[in-house]
Amino acid sequence: MESTRIDLKTVVSHAKEYGFVFPATEIYDGLSAVYDYGQLGVLLKNKIKAYWWASMVQLHENVVGIDSAIFMHPTTWKASGHVDAFSDPLIDNKDSKKRYRADVLVEDYVQKIEGKIQKEITKANKRFGEAFDEPQFRQTNPRVLANQSKIDSIQERLSQALNKEDYQALKQLIEELEISCPVSGSKNWTDVRQFNLMFDTEIGALADGSSKIYLRPETAQGIFVNFLNVQKTSRQKLPFGIAQIGKAFRNEIIARQFIFRMREFEQMEMQFFVKPGEEIGWYEYWKEQRFKWHLSLGFEASNYRFHDHIKLAHYANAACDIEFNFPFGFKELEGIHSRTDFDLTSHQTHSGKNLKAFDAESNESFVPYVVETSVGVDRLFLAVFSRALQQQKLPDGTQRVVLQLPEFLSPYQLAIFPLVKKDGLPELARTFFEELKYDFSCVFDAKDSIGKRYRRQDAIGTPFCITIDHDSLNDNKVTLRNRDTMQQERVSLDQLKQKLNSAVLIKEALKRL
User: Fold this and answer.
1) Is residue 500 part of a domain?
2) Which residue range(s) make up the domain with 494?
3) Are 430 and 43 a contacting pair, CB within 8 Å?
4) Of 30, 386, 449, 470, which is most buried, counting CB atoms within 10 Å of its CB?
5) Same domain, 384 and 432
């Protein structure tokens, strides 16, 4: 079967049509960059979270979990640096009145050049076939070398401008590259300026400014302020980690690309506390582990790549992103950061509380260093959903749309069909449904022809369908159909359970990590 990847517009349409993601409060014309997860979307999202939690907490005896509050004492965000430094460099186009992140404009420009390099590589690969040596081609082809040199020069200038917070230099780079507004095509830009991303509100009855608090822009600080509580009550010794899944909020001006960048989103983070001097070794360890985890979802390794940060955050001594090839190109999916001792030291200073850990072996106390892994649930949802959605041309010349989700993440793992709505088949099918629903997420469907029912389940990602026919009344066997191969076989109930157990249970996926 020949598969074709689907563009973002079709991804968004499919997500809404089949109950995965809806625009929030759509009956009131929606709210920009805010989305609701529908009846199938919430199932997929919860399974993604369950898989991450099990792989991070259940499989690591030195990682525990918490669930901290969204509202936190406002000094938390002063200590973390968010009050003073949590901002984006923004630039407006005077003609379209649209606002953009200045660094993203440059990064998108660089991505277009990378696209030119990839076209050269694709053409050469077709020309030379199995004899093609991509590394050698990259090092010797004049057009590739010229484009790569241009990329290196742009990234060096971007890095210097961001690190020095030289926004005049950043605007100058945009002008020299002749970057135009995607909407108007105009190159008429304002100066670059900073914009803080935190939402604030009032707590209590007063609104005089003294009661201002913030919606948390990240979940990490809830872990840091609970470090001592968790360490003492769990009796963990360094190195150990604290994991959390929770909502965060950012007043994104440039919210776009469906659920990739939203104002209300969910994070899965783990902060790993280590002895000073050991952080880089653990940073490399968690880079490898997290990349391996993403590959366990079953998509090709070519969909992922590491990207080292051009500008390190104020708290980091090493940082990289795992990028994914979304329908709009490679973008950040997960961040791995070596945060040094910045967070705990700062909270210790602002709170006056001793946040040092005691090491019995060396008989000394110190503020631990931290290695962070942080992945957005919504971005991971989009990565899985967009990569799984395929338009396939079948051998008989017909086409189908299929959502080839990893079986253990599929909203429904099994669809149960009576062949016809008579002759006792619906009743027998219900018997199978009642037997299987305790072990697997099942859906019962008796509407339309079998072919239409298969296509409907293909479109929502159900990996297996069983059909109860007239022979089932005598032999208690069913026809099992595989979503990906479309092959069918007759199986008994015991055989069915065995086949499903090996394919759809998270436990089996965890064993493969």
Assistant:
1) yes
2) 405-511
3) no
4) 386
5) no
* Portion of the chain with pLDDT greater than 90, in percent: 69
- Of 131-135, 291-295, 429-433, 490-494, the least confident: 131-135
The residues pairing with 331 across neighbouring beta strands, listed in sequence order, are 324
Where does a domain end: 147, 173, 196? 196
CATH, residue 169: 3.30.40.230
Domain boundary among the residues 168, 196, 224 is at 196
Burial class of residue 116, CB neighbours in 10 A (0-12, 13-18, 19+): middle
Tokens of 501: 């157990």
| Mean of all residue pLDDT scores within the chain | 91
CA atoms within 13 A on the CB side of 340: 11
- What distance in Å separates the CA atoms of residue 132 and residue 457, rounded to the nearest whole number? 41
Q: What is the CATH number of the domain that holds 414?
A: 3.40.50.800
* 191 and 107 share one domain: yes
Q: Is residue 79 part of a domain?
A: no
Contact by Cβ (8 Å): 409, 46: no
Query: What are the DSSP calls for 335-364, one per residue?
Result: EEEEEETHHHHHHHHHH-----EEETTTTE
CA atoms in the 13 A half-sphere facing the CB of 387: 23
User: Checking DSSP bridges between strand 240-249 and strand 212-214, what pairing results, if any?
Assistant: unpaired
3-state secondary structure at position 398? coil
DSSP track, 45-111: HHHHHHHHHIIIIIT-TTEEE----SB--THHHHHHTHHHH-EEEEEEBTTT--EEEHHHHHHHHHH
- Residue 466 and residue 468: Cα distance in Å, rounded? 7
Is there a domain that residue 78 lies in?
A: no
Does 254 lie in the same domain as 384?
Answer: yes
Give me the amino acid identity at 490: R
Same domain, 182 and 244: no
Query: Is residue 195 a contact partner of residue 88, using CB atoms and an 8 Å limit?
Result: yes
The set of long-range contacts for 210-214, using a CB threshold of 8 Å and a minimum separation of 24, is 212/74, 213/71, 213/72, 213/73, 213/74, 214/72, 214/74, 214/77, 214/82
DSSP state, 368? Answer: P
Domain match, 438 and 373 both: no
Phi, psi of 285 (to 5 degrees): -60, -50
Query: Is the preceding peptide bond at 418 cis, omega within 30 degrees of 0?
Result: no
77 occurs within a structural domain: no
pTM: 0.84
What letter does residue 28 receive in the DSSP assignment?
Answer: G
